[in-house]
Design brief:
The chain has 254 residues and is an alpha/beta fold. It is 26% helix and 20% strand. Strand 6, helix 4 and strand 7 form a beta-alpha-beta unit. The protein is globular, with a radius of gyration of 17 Å. The protein starts with 7 loop residues before the first strand and ends in a 20-residue tail after the last strand.
């Protein structure tokens, strides 16, 4: 399913929000990552999984500037659309899902909106070099960010939102993963022998759709069995490679 097949709901500057109507009571907000082509809008993320055969209402959020939510006014614009759509469809639950930059955006916005849960694949703790000096990817887009309104993932609210976060064990992924906060309500997994393409590799194994659908559907036991099948390790039980040195302290939750 391409962006041309999903009706455009909102457009302002680099921000595009598309809406796919569903039949059920839940609204899923799917945040796109950076994408593969610099001058083209990032495509919708997880379209079939998020929609579940038109069972769920879905908002697809993409940022052509790849600002990691730091573009002026973008956070407020997205929140306005989420709230209006949730009210329009009388949503019982609102769930956020995102990959890479999209996962980071979902985590940031959970500070201001009561998502029932957030599912984030390989999110960045920060793309600010002062926060994660080990990060050397996406330099073209990162250098365009003039002001970091969201310098790092912080102030998560596990009392209001359940968090499911997934990272690979490649060193740049771990540089982010080991900085994430830890608290009850935050389920964080390291996927062994995996780099930034955690979601793609799970999809190749036929595990991505059932995992996400069980998370959205509130089937945590089934999900845990599925994440353990490819060797997923809760981060609290993960031992970083010796070359990385001692595990870093988790960021505090404020």
């Amino acid at each position: 399913m391409s962006e041309t097949e999903i009706p455009l709901l909102f457009e302002k500057g680099p921000l595009r929000i598309r809406y796919l109507e569903g039949d059920g009571p839940d609204l899923v907000v799917s945040f796109s990552g950076v994408g593969k082509k610099r001058n083209i809008e990032p495509p919708p993320e997880f379209p079939s999984i998020a929609s579940a055969g038109r069972q769920n209402h879905v908002l697809f959020v993409s940022d052509k500037s790849r600002s990691w939510l730091n573009a002026d006014g973008m956070a407020d614009q997205i929140l306005c659309c989420i709230r209006a759509t949730a009210e329009h469809v009388n949503a019982d639950r609102v769930i956020a899902i995102g990959n890479s930059m999209g996962g980071t955006m979902a985590l940031h916005l959970s500070r201001f909106f009561d998502f029932e849960r957030v599912i984030a694949f390989t999110p960045q703790f920060s793309v600010r070099s002062e926060e994660v000096p080990e990060e050397d990817r996406w330099f073209y887009f990162r250098k365009q960010i003039k002001t970091f309104h969201f310098p790092k993932v912080e102030a998560l609210r596990p009392s209001a939102t359940k968090y499911y976060i997934f990272h690979g064990d490649e060193k740049r992924e771990l540089a982010h993963a080991l900085r994430f906060p830890n608290a009850p309500g935050i389920s964080h997994y390291i996927m062994p022998e995996t780099d930034h393409n955690v979601a793609a590799k799970l999809k190749d194994r036929g595990l991505l759709a059932p995992m996400v659908q069980n998370l959205i559907g509130g089937q945590p036991r089934k999900f845990r069995r599925q994440v353990e099948d490819p060797g997923g390790i809760p981060i609290l039980r993960f031992t970083p490679p010796a070359a990385m040195g001692p595990a870093q302290n988790f960021a505090a939750i404020h």
